[in-house]
Design a protein that fits this description.
It is a single chain. It contains eleven helices and no strands. About 50% of the residues are buried. The chain has about 270 residues and is mostly helical. It has one domain.
């Protein structure tokens, strides 16, 4: 593992995390959210994550474990780690109350609330801060996922970073709206949402330094399989339901198919 590989993986994680700022900006400067674009983009991101999780990450995790374990034990531990990742992100999702959950999506039009409602919500500054913390909690494991993918394969890391970034753009919109409800300040809502994206590179750094001393083929395989589980959960629990909420079913599926096709083509051409 070279220094340049670590720096590249961290850079990809930083890019993915700070994409929440793009969503925040869209919420403030767009009069209306482009629901068609949002639906296809979310479906595309889900397609990328699902395809790469099952076709590339899971097999690589099993191969890494097979270096030190028998084939049957490697398959067992990989499967357990995969579902462990899903349970981990599901627990995090359940621990964040719905009113502050960044995955409860909102539309950019919701920024135009009436003056009476805005004044009423100004007293909820505490809720606004909690919303920013909530997205930080959600982004933390995503940062580990992006970073570990970048360490395993820079080419794979780029693809996953782009998928996570697409996921974070509407998430930035979702966080900006409740923070604005609480503070009445567009600037504060933007910066809190933008800074909450730093949880992803923070997750990458903490994950790296904590796991670094114990890194082995088995541990690497377990973490990588858990990453696949995290991304599958994000796709099925957040991206696809939100895509259908904002658009037609077939548009969401078109996005999924497009994401899978692009990911498949990139893996073939890059030999990942």
């Amino acid at each position: 593992m070279t220094t340049s590989t670590v720096l590249l993986a961290f850079g990809l994680t930083l890019f993915a995390g700070l994409s929440t700022g793009i969503g925040s900006a869209m919420a403030f400067f767009a009069k209306k959210t482009s629901t068609h674009f949002l639906t296809i983009s979310l479906g595309f991101s889900a397609g990328v994550m699902l395809y790469v999780s099952f076709i590339d990450i899971f097999p690589k995790a099993r191969e890494a474990m097979a270096v030190s374990l028998t084939a049957s034990r490697a398959s067992l531990f990989t499967t357990v780690s995969f579902f462990g990742g899903m349970i981990f992100i599901a627990l995090i999702d359940q621990l964040v109350p719905e009113f502050g959950n960044p995955h409860e999506m909102h539309d950019a039009q919701e920024m135009d609330i009436d003056e009476a409602e805005r004044k009423k919500q100004q007293s909820l500054m505490r809720m606004g801060i909690f919303a920013a913390l909530a997205i930080g909690i959600h982004n933390f494991p995503e940062g580990i996922a992006t970073f570990m993918a970048g360490l395993a394969s820079p080419k794979l890391g780029v693809s996953i970073a782009i998928a996570i970034a697409i996921h974070n753009i509407p998430e930035g919109i979702a966080v900006s709206v409740p923070v604005f409800y609480a503070t009445g300040s567009r600037k504060k809502a933007f910066w809190l949402s933008f800074l909450s994206g730093l949880a992803e590179p923070a997750g990458a750094l903490i994950g790296f330094f904590v796991l670094r001393a114990f890194l082995s083929p088995v541990l690497f395989g377990a973490v990588f399989a858990a990453v696949a589980g995290i991304m599958v959960f994000i796709s099925l629990d957040e991206l696809l339901p939100t895509a259908e909420k904002y658009g037609e079913h077939h548009m969401a599926i078109l996005g999924v198919m497009s994401g899978m096709a692009v990911m498949a083509l990139s893996l073939i051409l890059l030999g990942a």
